[in-house]
Write a structure and sequence with these properties.
- The model has no long low-confidence stretch (mean pLDDT about 90).
- Helices cover about 25% and strands about 30% of the residues.
- It has helices spanning about 1-25, 225-260; strands spanning about 35-45, 45-50, 65-70, 70-80, 85-90, 95-100, 100-105, 110-115, 120, 130, 135, 145-150, 155-160, 170, 175, 185-190, 190-195, 200-205, 215, 220.
- A hairpin with a 2-residue loop joins β16 and β17.
- With about 260 residues, it is an alpha+beta fold.
- The strands form eight sheets. Strands 7, 8, 11, 15 and 18 form a five-stranded antiparallel beta sheet that branches. Strands 12-13-14 form a three-stranded antiparallel beta sheet, with no helix packed on it. Strands 1-4 form a two-stranded antiparallel sheet.
- The longest helix has about 35 residues, at about 225-260.
- The chain has two domains: about 1-40 and about 70-80 and about 225-260; about 85-220, no CATH class.
- It starts with a helix and ends with a helix.
- The protein is elongated, with a radius of gyration of 27 Å.
């Protein structure tokens, strides 16, 4: 019965983390480029009281084992990089990736961050940056006398200067992909960082080497499905209730055993 108390407690803790994860998914339902996360669980070690295959009385072979489990534990948070809904914004500096890949940004420490959030701005010196002021990699600078900015599906950036008739190409966006994007580490601010599990980035131009295309005037929305999250929330709540009842039942049995001497 003491085992049952600890086992049920692991179940309650696991469901608590499950609810925390669902809450984070729902909180980011309108976050640009957000990718939902799914928790994964594993059962804990088992205590084997009788092994299968051992000889019982009269030389008989035991057909099955007698084991008791010790609960559950969260083992991984699996990111889903399924494409989110692409919504029009009519802002020429808003870009959506249709397919695989991440925009690259230079963080203050000089390292590269990766994001699906393509809502870019122009800094006072004309550099293309994100909402936090991180520079796009490779760097792109919009001339002060530019009257329009055009981004092709292959990431080529062209500007039409004041008084000119023909647009000029000033650079090209470069995307990065990973062998295992689920291994990327979330840093907040709509950014991910490379890890050993994700593998090194594989940079290339949009539309090449397995990368998606860039669409101007659109932003990719979150891929959170509210109905699925609500169903998962109900499931987690019921599992939490059942685990708490297992603890109460174990406590009642302990109380009964304690009172046997009276």
């Amino acid at each position: 019965m003491i085992r049952a108390l600890n086992t049920a407690a692991t179940g309650m803790y696991a469901q608590q983390l499950f609810i925390d994860n669902i809450a984070n998914n729902l909180a980011n339902v309108n976050t640009t480029g957000f990718k939902r996360v799914r928790l994964e669980f594993q059962d804990l070690v088992y205590q084997t009281m009788r092994r299968a295959g051992n000889s019982a009385d009269l030389g008989q072979i035991l057909p099955s084992e007698l084991q008791v489990g010790h609960g559950v534990r969260p083992i991984a948070s699996q990111k889903s990089f399924e494409q989110g809904v692409v919504n029009p914004t009519d802002n020429p500096l808003d870009l959506a990736i249709e397919g695989n890949g991440f925009f690259q940004l230079v963080k203050p420490d000089g390292s590269i961050g990766y994001t699906r959030d393509g809502s870019f701005k122009i800094s006072p010196d004309g550099s293309l940056v994100n909402a936090d002021g991180y520079l796009v990699e490779p760097a792109l600078t919009i001339p002060a006398d530019a009257v329009s900015v055009t981004v092709a599906r292959d990431g080529t950036v062209s500007v039409l200067l004041f008084g000119e008739v023909e647009p000029q190409t000033i650079g090209q966006f470069e995307l990065a992909r990973f062998v295992n994007p689920a291994g990327l580490s979330s840093e907040g601010h709509n950014m991910y960082r490379e890890t050993v599990s994700s593998g090194p980035p594989i940079p290339a131009n949009p539309g090449s080497e397995g990368l998606g295309n860039v669409t101007q005037g659109y932003l990719e929305g979150s891929n959170v499905r509210i109905v699925e999250e609500m169903v998962s929330m109900i499931t987690a709540q019921r599992a939490y209730d059942i685990a708490s009842k297992a603890i109460k039942t174990s406590d009642d049995m302990l109380q009964t055993a304690t009172n046997l001497k009276r």
